[in-house]
């Protein structure tokens, strides 16, 4: 008897967010930048809340950041993640000033602390989708 | 113009709270609504405004079943668990504007036997941002989305899981006194600490129930309520508040500050009371951590001092700030906080039975929903 494979939730990009997902496919974490005033915003969205411009460009994140908070999920809330529990999700303050949420790879739960330097990596998922992951530095 | 004492709670009603109602959501809502209307000494045809909880049932269902000839006002306040208390503000505003006199607030759900509450999130437009950017990562359920807030509070302030356990234990104690509660077995701090980890640091006994049932409240114009069946419970101050980054918790500059932090000062100022005047508080308790965080955001203690406050017994019956005297969402039933409004009215009427706070004169009720929306109403007995 084999377990039926259940698909994980997949993003449904809009014209506002497609460049972010295209960036991940190219193993780049892109942050949206207002084309008018330069303010960065994350997650991607249509309008700059500082100047109301709807024109934007995209910068590539350095991948450097520090741990902000985290949770270790033990309960399989979604069948697509049932085989992966327990897994760690961490919020990471990126050097650019925005915050990433991603699963942690290669860092033990007890080693996590606020301010711990980390690097952003990428991991291949279904349908050619790459997702960001949090990895140790060095 | 202020909404201060423009409206009063004139009636409350609840069905039995179960896990497996065998009834339709509409039938349960009609049952609870009829109880609340009769509690107020009204006929269903007197209802001229309706603010239903925004899921499954609409104002038209009540027009049809109650035979209301001319409903003058309907709205929804889609703020998840903050909806019911925010609906008090909505009702009071409509009453104050002269649109209507008796507004029905109602919720009902087969949260256990039907569309499980834990599974409903991805279907809601408020969660669109999360659905695109965080659910693919495995951050799907409220427990997972809220856990980083709780962890951040622990790391910043030394808050302990054992302190949240005191919330679970005292809330269960109150549920047992209530008589209409799903959970009726006492629990200890050890039981809490031994309950399985759901999403660290939140354990099973930090989480609220999934429930079947319905609850309803009638909000009436104050000049009507003073001559109605029950002692009026006047709404002294009421407000809603939305947190920074309301669509994504992870993007919030201060993860420990909820929308309630913006609403509470407005409600206290409108009411003209201080924290020392509050005899009893029904605080939205989807998770124990959220209760503690709201006690801080309400201003009862400074940010970071909530852990010791809840851990030292202040929130028990007989304590400095008795909370969730009915058993809350943690142990009575998950009626998205409509049961908290019912309980506050009963406390201030002196009808709270074995959980009655002696001579309770002024109290407050909060809502918390979605990614941190908040709502608050401060009330006094008439
Ligand atoms: Zn701009």
Give a written overview of the molecule.
The complex is a heterodimer of chains A (138) and B (382). Chain A is mostly beta strands and 138 residues long. Chain A has two domains: 11-60, no CATH class; 62-138, OB fold (Dihydrolipoamide Acetyltransferase, E2P) (Beta Barrel). Chain A has one helix at residues 18-25; strands spanning 30-34, 40-41, 56-60, 64-73, 87-94, 99-104, 117-124, 130-136. Chain A is globular, with a radius of gyration of 16 Å. In chain B, helix 6 crosses helix 10. Chain B has a nine-stranded mixed beta sheet. Chain B is built from 13 helices and eleven strands. The mean pLDDT of chain B is 96. Chain B has a single domain (7-114, 208-381), classed as Peroxisomal Thiolase, Chain A, domain 1. Chain B is globular. The A-B interface holds A 8-13, 17, 42-43, 68-75, 77-78, 81, 84, 86-87, 89, 91, 98-99, 101-103, 109, 113-114, 125, 129, 131 and B 118, 122, 129, 131-141, 143-144, 147-149, 151-152, 155-156, 196-202, 248, 250-251, 255. Strand 4 (64-73) of chain A pairs antiparallel with strand 5 of chain B. The structure holds zinc ion.
